[in-house]
Write a structure and sequence with these properties.
Radius of gyration: 25 Å
Number of helices: 22
Main location: nucleus
Low-confidence stretches: 1-143, 145-227, 229-236, 238-432
InterPro entries: Homeo_prospero_dom, Homeo_prospero_dom_sf, Homeodomain-like_sf, Prospero_homeodomain
Strand content: under 5%
Mean pLDDT: 48
Pfam family, one: HPD
Distance between the termini: 50 Å
Subcellular location: Nucleus
Keywords: DNA-binding, Homeobox, Nucleus, Transcription, Transcription regulation
DNA sequence: ACCACTCCTG
DNA sequence: CAGGAGTGGT
């Protein structure tokens, strides 16, 4: 009876089957980030062999050493210079934004439990006793050697950039410098805040947390924490560095994927999908999809029809062809798994060599949703709906999920640990990127294609170069709020248009790349058209459009809060964001 | 109280 | 896109 039932039902099912995490909470941030794993098209291998033996084999030992070393160095540094004004500096390098910082700690449980940034830091550094200093100094020397090894092992490829790792003396800085690959417009410094990214380290650190205090004087904890951050940040940098290389080096792979994917679209036209493809797709029932599959995959809408055989086929709503933009841009949505997966395995390892286990979130690659091409569609004036008889299922192109095995490739480990609510970078790193810049905004917009309701934690994870404090966080959240506003306005507008155009079945509303609606959205979030909008976004957009259509059709818009139910639905359909977005220099 | 959100306004 | 008001959830 309820018009929504047709759509919502399947949807709900989809969510529960495909994306448990998703359902965990309305907009609980955690689920996505923890349980969910970014569908990274690549990065299949969970935790098997480490690509870089040097680095991973002795990871434990090395990590430990590195950690100690870092601590030592940090101690030295703080004793020498940083000591004063410690608390202030860390709390607000620049946030004039007031005292707001004071109480809050958006803290994330995950990180270091015991240590508390607050007041402790004040005297922490000062009280580092001389005795300890001596000991530490000795350790420092010993560790320098280790550091060299670590750095070398960590970035063999970057050897050229940092020959000899001569800058060891600079401690953490040397690491930072290493990562100086490429210029990051908005990332003057992205060192701090990285801890959030690689869970394993944090985990290990936790384990050792109990031990460390022994070395540290009373206020040592503060330093410990700072150092901890340093260490994590350094490692993350290294990882990023490698990630960059791996991801960027073989651009061809992604590009090709994206291209092939789209290239197929055109011909699909009105013909029923070819048996093979169609079957493939159609047979991809929710149940078989990995938990996380979810919306991201193009399956969602398609399956709706499956779920409900009686539903008429959806017709693309496109009214105007727009030049097909991006032709060879890296596909951001998980599509098929390229053969270079192996390379990505390295990444996977790098990013997750940790308490893994958070890996299994498998991801459906299906994502490949193919855009439903709009065939000879009779373009509707309002630009969207194209009505067609029955069967025009969306043609499927060579499906993404190449082989069964690949379908369930594990995703990159989700970043489980956040920056632990340490909003301010340790004073040790004075230069941290300040506020948000246009680059951040652009990135945020692109991220919107994947997530409409990002949690602050997620944002922190994806903007490692941003110093998150209350204001920054709020600002970024506000951005997304603004993005949503625009998004929903467009949806409502087009839904009403469809209604006025006489469309009666919401399922006939599908947002295609050549639709007016898409154009508007793309223009807003992807002005330069330099990013290939993921299909998952089209799915969500279509769904949103349909929801608005239903609501308005049903006259629910008379209720002041009629949009809420829609928001609720959409808020559960966020997709995972490609790992590459975690790079502070990504969109560049 | 806080926070995040929506809605409205500039 | 930022501000501010109003709202609802904690």
């Amino acid at each position: 009876m309820d018009p929504n039932s047709g759509l919502l039902s399947p949807l709900s099912r989809a969510c529960s089957h495909l994306a448990e995490p998703c359902m965990e909470g309305e907009r609980s941030p955690a689920p996505r980030e923890q349980g969910g794993d970014p569908h990274f098209p690549w990065s299949p291998v969970p935790s098997s062999s480490f690509a870089d033996p040097d680095w991973f084999c002795d990871e434990n030992i090395q990590a430990k050493r590195a950690r100690v070393e870092t601590i030592v160095q940090g101690m030295c540094l703080s004793l020498n210079a940083l000591v004063p004004g410690n608390a202030q500096a860390r709390d607000s390098p620049y946030c004039p934004e007031k005292a707001q910082e004071r109480k809050r700690k958006q803290s994330l449980p995950t990180q270091q439990g015991p240590l508390k940034p607050g007041p402790v830091g004040d005297h922490g550094s000062r009280k580092g006793g001389p005795r300890v200093r001596e000991q530490l100094y000795q350790l420092k020397q010993q560790l320098r050697h280790l550091q060299k090894h670590i750095l070398q092992a960590a970035e063999p490829r970057d050897a050229a950039q940092d020959p000899g790792g001569s800058e060891m003396d600079k401690g953490p800085l040397s690491v930072k410098q290493r990562k100086g690959y490429g210029s990051r417009p908005w990332a003057v410094d992205s060192d701090h805040h990285h801890q959030g990214s690689r869970g394993d380290l944090s985990q290990k650190e936790k384990h050792r947390a109990s031990e460390e205090p022994r070395f540290l004087p009373c206020g040592g904890q503060d330093l410990l924490e700072i150092l901890r951050k340093e260490l994590t940040g350094a490692v993350c940098q290294a990882v990023d560095s490698v990630l960059q290389k791996v991801l960027l080096d073989p651009p061809g792979h992604l590009t090709q994927l994206g291209r092939s994917f789209q290239g197929l679209v055109p011909e699909g036209s009105s013909e029923p999908s070819p048996p093979e493809r169609g079957i493939c797709k159609d047979l991809f029932p929710f149940a078989t999809l990995p938990r996380r599959a979810q919306p991201q995959t193009g399956v969602l809408l398609r399956n709706l029809s499956l779920a409900n055989p009686l539903d008429p086929p959806r017709y693309p709503v496109s009214s105007r062809m727009i030049p097909r933009p991006y032709q060879g841009r890296p596909a951001n949505c998980p599509l098929t798994v390229p053969s270079h997966i192996q390379e990505n395995q390295i990444l996977s390892q790098l990013l997750s060599h940790g308490p893994s286990d958070h890996w299994d979130s498998s991801l459906p690659q299906d994502s490949s949703s193919q855009s439903h091409s709009s065939p000879e569609s009779a373009l509707r004036p309002w630009g969207a709906v194209k009505l067609r008889p029955s069967v025009l299922s969306q043609q499927q192109y060579p499906l993404p999920f190449t082989s069964p095995g690949l379908e369930r490739l594990p995703l990159l480990p989700s970043v489980k640990v956040e920056q632990g609510g340490l909003q301010c970078a340790p004073d040790v790193l004075p230069f941290s990127s300040e506020g948000l810049n246009p680059g951040h905004l652009k990135k945020a917009k692109l991220m919107f294609f994947f997530t409409r309701y990002p949690s602050s934690n997620l944002l922190k994870a994806y903007f490692p170069d941003v110093q998150f404090n209350r204001c920054i966080t709020s600002q970024m959240i506000k951005w997304f709020s603004n993005f949503r506003e625009f998004y929903y306005i467009q949806m409502e507008k087009f839904a009403r248009q469809a209604i006025s155009d006489g469309v009666t079945n919401p399922k006939m509303l599908v947002v295609l790349r050549d639709s007016e609606l898409f154009r508007a959205l793309n223009m807003h979030y992807n002005k330069g058209n330099d990013f290939e909008v993921p299909d998952c976004f089209l799915e969500i957009a279509s769904l949103t459009l349909q929801e608005f259509f239903r609501a308005v059709s049903a006259g629910k818009d008379s209720d002041p809060s009629w949009k809420k139910p829609i928001y609720k639905i959409i808020s559960k359909l966020d997709s995972d964001i490609p790992e590459i977005f975690k790079s502070s220099s990504y969109p560049q």
